């Protein structure tokens, strides 16, 4: 899942990003509304965590732009105010969910995952295919009943492949969904991660390479 965190409190923004990366999400971070508009113009995000009271360009205007562009991106709006009127106003702007500060990180993560499921065709919370059982919420993977310990990026790549339901996923798509914008697109990081993932999942191999196209399960 690709997430953009837009929050002018830099310590909070960086802490949220670090936590979500540990949950196997690809996270970009910006600290004002203008930078957020630049990112959404070039990158596709599943979820935007958007502080409402942003400098340069207000969070309301960022939310309006996402709606105006007709993007499938879901917006989780944050605010220091817990007033019902503020929550209603934020949702009327086009936000998909609303979370007042301070918040529990576990709740933020659960809301982000729930919104991420709404950007694509609805799938069950636990994904199963080819003997693999992947639970995004518990961060657990089993192969034929055997638990498989995966690093965050390996988990992220496997989740993208499982959600594709047999369709071919290109290396570029994996890079976009599982890594943030600081990753060099010309590295072999996707190939190396897939190789490690294959080894950990064991035989027979379930991740198939489609020459010239990408990978599928």
From TrEMBL:
CDD domains: REC_OmpR_CusR-like (cd19935), trans_reg_C (cd00383). Residues 124-217 form the OmpR/PhoB-type domain. The modification 4-aspartylphosphate is found at residue 51. Keywords: DNA-binding, Phosphoprotein. InterPro entries: CheY-like_superfamily, OmpR/PhoB-type_DNA-bd, Sig_transdc_resp-reg_receiver, WalR-like, WH-like_DNA-bd_sf. Residues 124-217 bind DNA. SUPFAM superfamilies: CheY-like. It comes from the Bacteria. The keyword Nucleus does not apply. Residues 2-116 form the Response regulatory domain. This is Response regulator transcription factor. It comes from Streptomyces orinoci.
């Amino acid at each position: 899942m690709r997430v953009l965190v837009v929050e002018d409190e830099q310590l909070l923004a960086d802490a949220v990003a670090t936590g979500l990366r540990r949950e196997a999400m690809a996270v970009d971070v910006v600290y004002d509304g203008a930078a957020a508009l630049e990112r959404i113009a070039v990158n596709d995000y599943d979820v935007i965590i958007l502080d409402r009271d942003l400098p340069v360009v207000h969070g309301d205007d960022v939310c309006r732009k996402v709606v105006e562009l007709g993007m499938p991106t879901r917006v989780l709006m944050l605010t220091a105010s817990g007033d019902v009127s503020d929550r209603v106003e934020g949702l009327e702007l086009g936000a998909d969910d609303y979370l007042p500060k301070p918040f529990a990180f576990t709740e933020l993560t659960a809301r982000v995952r729930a919104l991420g499921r709404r950007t694509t065709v609805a799938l069950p919370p636990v994904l199963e295919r080819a003997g693999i059982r992947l639970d995004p919420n518990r961060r657990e993977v089993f192969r034929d009943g055997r638990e498989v310990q995966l690093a965050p990026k390996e988990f992220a790549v496997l989740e993208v492949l499982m959600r594709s339901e047999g369709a071919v996923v290109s290396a570029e798509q994996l890079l976009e969904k599982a890594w943030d914008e600081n990753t060099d697109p010309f590295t072999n990081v996707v190939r190396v991660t897939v190789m490690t993932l294959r080894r950990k999942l064991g035989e027979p191999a379930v991740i198939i390479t489609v020459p010239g196209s990408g990978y599928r399960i």
